[in-house]
């Protein structure tokens, strides 16, 4: 009966603590929002994407003219003399100005290929950023769930240690009056030492979980409110697999990377094709000497160049680009397989966790009933101290197992959404202003001039 009172007292104390902290309770949604807003890894990926956006105006610059203005001015004096004659001085002040304009008309398709390649790289980095975003958010879910689970395990182990402490003391009292043997006292002490070790281990795991949470969210966890598993999941394993093949961001990244490699083939082939440029120039020179001389020249010249043989380097680069494209294709195939495995693993983990929750819930109910009965039997001498200790351990194991299964269910729902590309801030409907990948893209795509850089804030 004493153990029952201790369990009830511990539970009541836990309820009071929960009620006191509920006002300042943190939610999983709040943690996800904080990470989305402030995580440096995600911010770095956004900066990477903005840098990749700049590849498009760089590629498009191949269609734009280049204009160069140059000027020079100087002073020169030369003296010369002939035998028997006076020296002749020649003073010159040359002034030269030049304006040159070059316009590409055809570069073997390289400008179009470079533009397509830059667009493909943007798509690849958008997929990479979305994949990073999902990994971050699911990582926050895992850290959050680990803290909640860890705190629950610590509470259960503290309660169990207190029960076994009182149990050990009561067994010692009974030994001193001759009701139990010395071996039963040792059994109670052994279980108490084990409970203390379990409590210490759970506290260490909780510290690790809190550190992981802080590294992702940016602040230490306070009182975390238990979260509910996601709904709106795929209806079956086959649905999960098909969605993963189409929407998984690692697959999208590999697909765009393969397209980038194929654009690279066209880019290198362009080195073997003719080039056509239009060159315009205005040259003005003025020289002040003994006589003032001025000249002005205007030219407009179309120039075509046809590569005939370049030591085989260009053709080697074409073959190399084709092999790289083959490599990217196989990497895409592997990305699909990896996505299918991730979806399958998440689905099976979810089904297993749900089944374990039901099983452990039944085990907790049965273990509670069994413990009460064994305690009553022990009071009349038909059960030993070891029987009571075993029953208490079974109840603790069932409770811990249920806590862990609930954690696994929560995490598995997010991992399943991640596998099918539905765990971004937008798809999770987080209450936060979403980062718009098109804003910077539209800003710089057609830009002809400007040194200012948008930092995305």
What does this entry look like structurally?
The chain is an alpha+beta fold and 457 residues long. Helix content is 65%, strand content 13%. It is built from 11 helices and 5 strands, in the order ααααβββααααββααα. The protein has helices at residues 2-21, 28-38, 40-53, 55-60, 110-176, 182-217, 237-247, 249-269, 313-379, 385-419, 437-445, and strands spanning 66-73, 76-80, 88-106, 275-288, 292-305. Strand 4 and strand 5 form a beta hairpin. It is elongated, with a radius of gyration of 38 Å.
How many distinct beta strands? 5
Number of domains: 1
Which strand-content bin applies to the residues? 5-15%
Helix content: 55-70%
What is the gyration radius calculated from CA atoms?
38 Å
Shape field: elongated
The class by helix and strand makeup works out as: alpha+beta
Count of separate DSSP helical elements: 11
User: What's the name of the CATH homologous superfamily?
Assistant: Outer membrane efflux proteins (OEP)
Q: Give the CATH architecture.
A: Up-down Bundle
Mean pLDDT: 87
CA-CA gap between termini: 62 Å
Order of helices and strands: HHHHEEEHHHHEEHHH
What is the CATH top level name?
A: Mainly Alpha
Question: In this structure, how is the largest beta sheet organized?
Answer: 5 strands, antiparallel
Oligomerization state of this entry?
A: single chain
């Amino acid at each position: 009966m004493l153990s029952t009172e201790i369990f009830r007292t511990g539970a009541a104390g836990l309820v009071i603590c929960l009620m006191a902290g509920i006002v300042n309770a943190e939610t999983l949604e709040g943690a996800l929002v904080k990470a989305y807003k402030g995580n440096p890894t995600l911010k770095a990926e956004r900066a990477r994407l903005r840098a990749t956006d700049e590849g498009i105006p760089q590629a498009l610059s191949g269609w734009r003219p280049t204009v160069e203005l140059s000027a020079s001015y100087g002073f020169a004096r030369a003296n010369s003399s002939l035998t028997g004659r006076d020296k002749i001085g020649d003073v010159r002040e040359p002034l030269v100005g030049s304006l040159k304009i070059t316009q590409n008309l055809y570069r073997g398709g390289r400008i179009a290929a470079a533009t397509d390649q830059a667009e493909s790289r943007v798509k690849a980095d958008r997929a990479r950023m979305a994949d990073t975003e999902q990994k971050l958010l699911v990582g926050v879910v895992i850290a959050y769930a680990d803290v909640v689970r860890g705190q629950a395990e610590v509470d259960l182990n503290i309660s169990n240690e207190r029960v076994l402490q009182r149990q050990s003391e009561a067994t010692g009292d009974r030994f001193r009056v001759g009701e139990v043997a010395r071996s039963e006292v040792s059994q109670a002490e052994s279980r108490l030492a084990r409970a203390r070790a379990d409590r210490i281990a759970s506290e260490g795991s909780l510290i690790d979980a809190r550190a992981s949470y802080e590294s992702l969210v940016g602040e230490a966890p306070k009182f975390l409110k238990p979260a509910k598993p996601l709904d709106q999941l795929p209806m079956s394993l086959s649905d999960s697999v098909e969605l993963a093949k189409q929407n998984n961001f690692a697959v999208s990244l590999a697909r765009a990377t393969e397209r980038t490699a194929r654009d690279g083939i066209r880019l290198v082939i362009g080195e073997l094709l003719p080039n056509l440029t239009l060159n315009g120039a205005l040259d003005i020179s003025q020289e002040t000497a003994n006589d003032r001389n001025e000249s002005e020249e205007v030219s407009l010249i179309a120039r075509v160049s046809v590569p005939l043989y370049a030591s085989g380097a260009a053709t080697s680069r074409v073959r190399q680009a084709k092999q790289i494209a083959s490599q990217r294709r196989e990497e895409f195939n592997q990305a699909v397989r990896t996505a299918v495995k991730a979806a399958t693993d998440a689905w099976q983990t979810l089904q297993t966790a749900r089944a374990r929750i039901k099983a452990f819930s039944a085990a907790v109910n049965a273990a509670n009933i069994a413990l009460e009965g064994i305690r009553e039997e022990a009071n009349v001498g038909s059960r030993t101290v070891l029987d009571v200790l075993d029953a208490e351990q079974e109840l603790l194991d069932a409770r811990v197992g249920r806590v862990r299964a609930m954690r696994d269910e929560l995490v598995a729902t997010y991992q399943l959404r991640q596998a099918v590309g539905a765990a971004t801030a937008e798809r999770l409907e987080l209450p936060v202003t979403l980062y718009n990948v098109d804003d910077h893209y539209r800003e710089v795509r057609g830009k002809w001039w400007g040194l200012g850089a948008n930092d995305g804030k």
